[in-house]
Amino acid sequence: MALNRMSAADAVGKYIKDGDQIALGGFTVNRNPMLMIREIIRQKIKDLYLVVHSHGQGMELLIGAGCVKRVELAYGGVARFAPTGHRFKKAFLDKTIEVEDYSNFHMTLRFLAGAMGLPFVATKSGLNTDIVRRSGFSAACRGKDRVPEHKLKIIDDPLDPNGGEVIVLPPLKPDVAILHAQFVGDEGTCRICGLSFADIEQAKAAKTVIVTCEEIIPEDIIRQEPDQNSLPHFMVDAVIVAPFGAHPTACHKFYDYDPVHLNLFKNMAREDDRFADYLNEWVYSLDSQEAYLEKVGIRNILKIKANSALGYAPGLDRR
Question: Residues 105-147: pLDDT tens digits?
Fold first, then answer.
């Protein structure tokens, strides 16, 4: 099977449209698909419906740039750089986005249910919490534009009369899942090294899967250790080669997160004018990954280069 390799610009143009429900891979400051996120902003895609596990830098950028209408998530922040994302918080308070929250476990279960084609998934996790008591989405939007008719329901265990109550959750079936991986085989087999978070469940639940990767390697090499692979080639619709494609978030074994850039972003994301300057300086004016990395600078890139055995950059000044 031939690899459907393309540019980020072509992938956004072909597969992502206004109003799509998008699952973003990664977790807070780890493996965010940043190259694709910057390209979505440059192409001015609007009204996206994000469904994520816990997300950070990528979600912050998309929300701040005005690309997002609605979010379902477990957490939105950039780790210690912004325990609650500045742009996420502002958009929520200004009511420019609608937000529905679940637990991390709930979101993973919902992606898993979508991947398995289940009508719902049941759990006892979350009973007697505000997650089941409160709803972020308005009643007016329920049952429209991909919004579940119900956030969840509590029912009696249908199989055990002594089992008590269970929560049933709606499945998630995103239009597109966008992931960043370390390796893709030249026929499309995908390998994520280190923690995979909910990426695999997101991809299996989605109609279309776009993967950016650090390296493309021969298919016969990646298949020598099939237990290490994450997705088969037939599930991957498009591949974009993107060295440092998750920067400024980390990519295990390749590079750490970039504290210099994340501190810069933290300071510029607090105010509207300065965030607009960030977009102009780091997104709109840089139309290629090469131009972006040139601006990051070789000195900063070398500082975050990971030790290949440890997977991160020992001694990195993370302040």
Answer: 999 999 999 999 999 999 999 999 999 999 999 999 999 999 9
**pLDDT of 1 over the 80 cut:** no
| Mean pLDDT (the chain, rounded) | 97
Write the DSSP assignment of the chain as a string of letters: ----B--HHHHHHHH--TT-EEEEPSBTTBS--HHHHHHHHHTT--SEEEE-SEE-HHHHHHHHTT-EEEEEESEE-BGGGBSS-HHHHHHHHTTSSEEEE--HHHHHHHHHHHHHT-S-EEESTTTTSHHHH--SS-GGGTTSTT--S-S-EEEE-SS-TTS-EEEEE-----SEEEEEEEEEETT--EE--S--TTHHHHHHH-SEEEEEEEEEE-HHHHTTSGGG--B-GGG--EEEE-TTTTTTSBBTTTB---HHHHHHHHHHHSSHHHHHHHHIIIIIT--SHHHHHHHH-HHHHHHHBPPTTTSS-TT----
**pTM beyond 0.70:** yes
